[in-house]
Amino acid sequence: MNRIDSPHSAALLGEAFEQRVKLLLVDDQPVNIQALYQVFASDHQVLAATDGHKALDIAHKQQPDLVLLDVVMPGMDGFEVCRRLKLDPSTSDIPVIFLTASSDTESEEQGLDAGAVDFIAKPFNPKIVRARVKTHVTLKRQSDLLRQWVFLDGLTGIANRRLFDERLAVEWGRSRRLGTALSTLLIDVDHFKRFNDAMGHQQGDACLRLVARALDAGVSRPTDLVARYGGEEFVCLLSDTDEAGAAHLAETLRQRVHDDVQPQTLVAGWPQVTVSVGVGCIRPEAMQQSADLIRQADHNLYRAKQAGRNQVMYGPLPT
Q1: Which domains are present in the chain?
Q2: pLDDT tens across 234-261, in order?
Q3: In 3-state terms, the chain is what percent helix, strand and coil (to 5)?
Q4: Which range, 8-17, 114-123, 142-151, is most confident?
Q5: Do the Cβ atoms of 69 and 82 come closer than 8 Å?
Q6: Neighbours of 110 (CB within 10 A)
């Protein structure tokens, strides 16, 4: 979900800290993982990996709050795991604490250069480990909260245009490297100006909030982003999604708005609230830019409006 339910700092911070902390323990020795598990299992969600590749996979899929990472491991050592975590935008903000039997300055410098936030010496003291984990998780959640405010649309509570633009740049680069499809949906509330003029700005604002909530509830993958694009227009960014998948989700969202928003905004003189959706889908190539994806979605949104609104259109730009 991309929506934040409350703009108040105390409520948001309290909600963040009430969530169960998720830790990823990475060590090639199961006995070490078991010892750390006993320290944290009672009040943390504990994930574990015994090699670097598995650790990266879990971190990407599970998004832990913090990683406790052994330095010396066969194959990919802890320094390389940390570097890769920091290079991936989806895991770069996860704090990493190294667990190491070595306390020399050179190793600590190498770990800090790789992106670690702290070192804990082996054999570890359980109270020290818990205290340091708590400190860095608290700092991360405070940072996450501030970041959410920067990227929050004040009216609807979902992501704003700034976050969408940043995520589009990241996903465009990823799709280009991997050769995967990237899709976006441009979604416009039909006849919104007429609705606003007839019902008043307060009803108009309420309508936009309900549409935003319906759209945000309609996406299920954590990598999908729903944002307010501007005015009565919304946008959805879908990584690793082909045109058929994007069109299917677009129709699901169109129907969801009709079903969820209609009963709540049904007022005298305005029979229904609907949206039109334009789909854009590209496999990024060298001569293309992310703006091409938006142009394609915008073109198809125009087609949906011209065809009578309350529908989904997709297809390539005309040549």
Answers
A1: 9-150 (3.40.50.2300), 161-313 (3.30.70.270)
A2: 999 999 999 999 999 999 999 999 998 8
A3: 50, 20, 30
A4: 114-123
A5: yes
A6: 16
